[in-house]
Amino acid sequence: MVCNHRFVEYGESKGQLYGTSIDAIDEVLKRGRMCIIDIEPPSIHLLRLRNLKPYVIFIKAPSPESLRQTRRNSRIITSYAINRAFTEEDFLELEETSHLIEAKYKQYFDSVVVNDNLQDACMQLCSVIQQAQNEPQWIPVSWLHAED
């Protein structure tokens, strides 16, 4: 399948192969369902196909201050000891990575949701999905023409 370009993305992690196949996405869409995919940013452009018609939502990291509070709250809520405490560098790296992803790939994003407050972010995400389902969306003109 890799040689036949049947994956949107694929890779190996800890000796295990993984991938998101175009056929699996097509099967979900043929059943009239919405296919939600968590994909690495460099692969976003591969989804921009006429048959997939993606609606891309970027879940953006909040500020380091918000992240610190979220980590403190998670320990209180779950009373679970985290194996590795986040360092200041981790918080700053996450924020920087989020900014870099947005700067490099924002032309592919249909919407951006900032994960600042979990409940608010979930409500906003649901609202964005509902809007994408119910309202007309702009698409590239090339998706309207028959394939050659």
UniProtKB/TrEMBL annotation:
Gene3D superfamilies: P-loop containing nucleotide triphosphate hydrolases
Residue intervals of the Guanylate kinase-like domain: 1-130
Recorded superkingdom: Eukaryota
InterPro entries on file: GK/Ca_channel_bsu, Guanylate_kin-like_dom, MAGUK, P-loop_NTPase
Alphabetized PROSITE patterns for the sequence: GUANYLATE_KINASE_2
Protein name from the UniProt record: Guanylate kinase-like domain-containing protein
Species this protein is from: Ilyodon furcidens
